[in-house]
Amino acid sequence: MRHLAIFFALITAASVGALQQQPGGSSSIFSQITPFSPETLGVFASVAKLKANWGYSKWKINQKITCDSCIFGFTTLQTLLKLHMPADKIAAIIENICVDLEIEPRLVCRGVLESFRPETFYVLQHVPYSPGEMCNFVTGASCAVDPPGTHWSLPLPDVPKPPAKDIPPPAPNAPRLRVLHLSDLHFDMFYQEGANAECSDPLCCRRENGAPVGKPAGRWGDSRNCDSPVRLMENMFSWISANEKVDYILWTGDLPAHDIWNQTKQMQLLVLKMTTKYLRGFFPNTPVFPALGNHESSPVDSFPPRFINDTNSIKWLYDALATTWNQWLPADAIKTVSHGGFYRVKVFPGFRIISLNTNYCNNMNWWLLINMTDPDNELQWLITELQDAENTGDKVHIIGHIPPGSGDCLRVWSQNYFRIIARYEDTIRGQYYGHEHSDSMHIYYDPANEAHVTGLSFLGPSVTPYQGFNPGYRIYTIDGNYANSSWVTLDHETYIANLTEANDSGNPPKWFKEYSAKEAYGLEQLLPADWDALMNDMETDDVLFHKFWQYYWKSEDKSVSVGCDAPCRKYLLCRIRARSENCVKVQ
User: Fold this and answer.
1) Rounded to the nearest 5 degrees, what angle is found at the Cα of 222, between the Cα atoms of 219 and 224?
2) pTM tops 0.85, yes or no
3) 541 is in an annotated binding site
């Protein structure tokens, strides 16, 4: 996510800048930093290299944050806070250097600082970890030995695991459910047709971005740095409601646009209200089961657990969700939404949906640095719910936003989740997430036996075309609702609109079925083991992998044409196997 790169760039730049602004030069501040963190000694060489490159030229900080710059940035900020440098002065240093180094325009630099400053300064003054240990958390790299607090394992009930049973295909005439999956709408109410789609801000296609550079922003959206205009969402909802009959809707989060430097709590709540109004208007009689995205908060990614109960509390958002979602959810589900943004609902006899708040595994949620052990007891609650479902013979689908096993989900949280999935693999018959914008999946394996496939999460394609995609949505065919339904996904179909064609023709987008998973890949079933075998084939079958690569980008021509060479393929397939902590080794 670009906002993390921006903020770390600011931290690193400000660290070097603060050295230059201290009386007596860098040696003065170094002597004060060192007692706070011996790790600083190990990064002096890197700092010298940074200073050698210093000079108000067009220096850009790489988005892949190194351990050295991360450690140095955290150390310096903590030291300045401990030395009681006024927060406004620290912020002014960071803002000016951000602008001088052309990291981002001033409005973005200032907005990011204003948004993240209270959270960041609070966390840095309360965190129990060293800078290197913190950098393990936020970068996913091995910058230090993991401290004990980052290794936790939840106990599973002392109940024998029932044997996993084969799931045969249902009878040809068995009932089916059709389920709509919407994810990552990123609705931009300020999108402007004809605006600059290649601006210097993280989000473009707005009036303030000035005259177009090259081709202007299209009428129906743009797959450069632009989010979903109102008319695109209206057109898509209208098409679906007129052409699809769905039994229920999965809505897996990320409603606001990517202007993270310019967002307030009031704006986030307005977007929640507007998008909910669209769903109610176009699908008035269809149940909707939502999940919470990382962009719903202000600032983005900020989801403090309940032990943060002062002015930084997230209660403002959870209360709004409880009020908004109560039209679809029963009272017992609304109670846990108010508590932690997660819930369970019984949809049909023998079938439940569990919606997780995966912001509690988000490594950009810096509140977790204070205490990351099962925030708000969500995973312990999940275990209790799954055990209850197993006891009654119910089957469960899990929905969420950030998929466990991804690089954005804390490793220890994912590892606990994998253990839970392995224990209850016969109860969990489907998992559905979003976040990555691509059309993809994650495959899960038993931590005690990595050859054994235990689960699969389908990642719904994004509605937003932001950064290289066509807009899309997905329809699942589910085995149910009848006695002894398996509740497994029998097929999924991805629908897209070609934005280039729509914008060039002047006509509304034509939504069409891009592919059926069963037909495109020749699968008899879509069980986890079937997808695992397919990924194995993709390692060597170029034609098969290219097909997957095209669907991954929702057939956006420019992105597909970039291609994916051997290291890229190896890395992508590693990520699909939900082993993100190992994938950096194959890049």
Assistant:
1) 155
2) yes
3) no
Contact indicator for 502, 544 with CB cutoff of 8 Å: no
Residue 442's H or E segment, with its range, is strand 440-446
Question: Which is nearest to 353 in space by CA: 303, 427, 416?
Answer: 427
According to the annotation, is 254 in a ligand binding site?
A: yes
Where residue 13 falls among pLDDT bands split at 50, 70, 90?
A: low
Q: Which of 230, 234, 221 is nearest to 554 (CA)?
A: 221
492 is in an annotated binding site: no
Residue 430 lies in a domain: yes
Q: Which residues contact 329 (CB under 8 A, 6 or more apart)?
A: 289, 337, 343, 345
CA distances from 81 to 111, 238, 365 (A): 21, 53, 21
Q: What is the pLDDT of residues 174-200, one digit of tens each?
A: 999 999 999 999 999 999 999 999 999
How many domains would you assign to the chain?
A: 2
* Interatomic CA distance for residues 255 and 233, integer angstroms: 11
Q: Are residues 333 and 478 in the same domain?
A: yes
Is 479 assigned a ligand-binding role in the annotation? Answer: no
Examine the domain organization and report whether 140 and 275 are in the same domain. Answer: no
Instruction: Mark whether 244 and 123 lie in a shared domain.
Output: no
How much of the chain is helix, strand and coil, in % rounded to 5? Answer: 45, 15, 40
Give residues with Cβ within 8 angstroms of 178, minimum separation 6: 244, 245, 246, 247, 475, 476, 477, 478
- 142 lies in the same domain as 233: no
146 known ligand binder: no
Cis-peptide into 481, omega within 30 deg: yes
Query: Does a structural domain hold residue 435?
Result: yes
Where in the sequence is the domain holding 84, given as residue range(s)?
2-148
Could you tell me if residue 36 is inside a domain?
yes
- Return the SS3 of 530: helix
348 with 419, same domain?
yes
Bridging pattern class, strands 288-290 and 489-497: unpaired
- State the CATH number of the domain containing residue 452: 3.60.21.10
Per-residue pLDDT at 586: 46
452 is in an annotated binding site: no
